[in-house]
Automatic annotation (TrEMBL):
Transmembrane segments: none annotated. The lineage of its organism: Bacteria, Pseudomonadati, Pseudomonadota, Alphaproteobacteria, Hyphomicrobiales. One of its GO terms (biological process) is proteolysis. Residues 1-26 form the signal peptide. The keyword Signal applies. This is Uncharacterized protein. Coiled coil: none annotated. SUPFAM superfamilies: Trypsin-like serine proteases. It comes from Prosthecodimorpha hirschii. InterPro entries: Glutamyl_endopeptidase, Peptidase_S1_PA, Peptidase_S1_PA_chymotrypsin, TRYPSIN_HIS. The keyword Signal applies.
């Protein structure tokens, strides 16, 4: 269900400072000069926010091919001292969570697990619900933001990639057809709509970034670099100023590793559990043009910006592994099929590339301790 919600909540910043709007090769971002934390939205308000529609595949790349460069890996982190989730009263789930199971029959049982696109996948709730407050799930969460032109609120998905930075899709931070940034970003790690209080609260923003390829691409997808980064302001926890990544941990990231890979995508799709529970989607990725890849999926709007993670999970004692760096983000949810999820059932991601690296470098350098 698609709907626009207007919420009576305090605006986070009266003015925005535009920076980095020089040459096309430069990074583009806006800075929030007033980083005080606004009042948290209630779980009921969060439930009511509509998912940002997932961009549908269109003709044209939306940007010239970017140089992939030498593959790079940026390490992740899990703190030795585990954060303690806030105690919360349980709320009843929305009525449509227990609705009928929707089946998309395409002639035989085999076709239902992969759709007409032919990409096998598994989509499921993250379960039990308490799992979302543990690593590595808690490093992903729900991202909400406001379109200042329409005053409408929307939701996407994002993931922590350094001490203060979260990664999402470019279309979740910048409206490429309207030529404007969204604003009033709030990130809720490990969000769960059945809780009266979210386990690690809501975190506000200091700055937001996107790539020139997304900004100048006209909003068409696949796009060579549909990426966005949000700098998250510190919170005072137990009398100590904490960064979100230092407190909860963060994912590793790696460029040029998207395709011919087995990945787990995390998201809050509005078409599953009304975007109220974290959903995990697993499948194999395959090239789709020169700058993106696709994976079978039944997720729709709201999952935009969700991380595509290789070697996801917690390594067991004595486990034989081929790579010692687990939980690396190699892409984010960018687009879906032109006709919607059914019957094709796939999603696409831009390949993390030199544009991503340049954006990350710019965001890391803006404030000491960001990375």
């Amino acid at each position: 269900m698609s709907r626009t919600i207007l919420l009576a909540v305090p605006a986070l910043a009266a003015t925005l400072t535009l920076a980095g709007a020089g040459a096309a090769a430069a990074q583009t971002w806006i800075v929030n000069p007033s980083r005080q934390k606004p009042a948290d939205l209630t779980t009921e308000q969060l439930r009511a926010i509509a998912p940002l529609p997932l961009p549908r595949e269109s003709k044209g790349s939306g940007g010239k091919a970017a140089a992939k460069g030498t593959p790079q890996v940026f390490p992740g982190f899990v703190p030795a001292d585990e954060p303690v989730p806030a105690e919360s009263d349980a709320l009843p789930p929305p009525a449509d969570w227990n609705g009928p199971l929707i089946r998309y029959d395409a002639g035989n049982d085999d076709s239902r697990s992969k759709g007409t696109s032919g990409y096998p996948f598994t989509t499921t709730r993250v379960f039990p619900d308490t799992a979302v407050s543990t690593a590595p799930y808690r490093m992903a969460g729900k991202l909400i933001f406001r379109d200042s032109t329409t005053n409408s609120w929307y939701m996407c998905t994002a993931a922590i990639i350094s001490y203060r930075l979260v990664l999402t899709a470019g279309h979740c931070v910048y409206n490429a057809t309207g030529k404007r940034f969204y604003t009033d970003f709030r990130f809720t790690p490990g969000y769960n709509a059945t809780l009266g209080t979210q386990p690690y609260g809501q975190w506000t923003w200091s700055a937001v970034y996107t790539t020139p390829a997304w900004q100048n691409g006209g909003g068409t997808v696949p796009n060579v670099s549909d990426f966005g980064i949000i700098e998250i302001a510190n919170q005072t926890i137990g009398g100590v100023s904490r960064t979100i990544g230092g407190y909860l941990g963060y994912y590793a990231t790696a460029t040029a590793r998207l395709n011919y890979n087995h990945l787990t995508a995390l998201g809050y799709p509005g078409n599953i559990d009304s975007g109220g529970r974290m959903i995990a989607n697993q499948g194999e990725t395959r090239p789709y043009g020169s700058s993106s890849g696709v994976m079978g999926s039944s997720m729709a709007g709201g999952s935009s910006g969700g991380p595509w993670i290789e070697d996801f999970g917690v390594v067991g004692s004595g486990q034989l592994i081929a790579n010692s760096v687990a939980n690396r983000i190699v892409g984010v949810t960018s687009y879906g099929p032109a006709g919607g999820p059914s019957p094709s059932f796939y999603q696409g991601s831009s390949i993390l590339n030199a544009d991503f690296t340049a954006m990350r470098t710019t965001a890391c350098a803006r404030l000491a301790g960001n990375c």
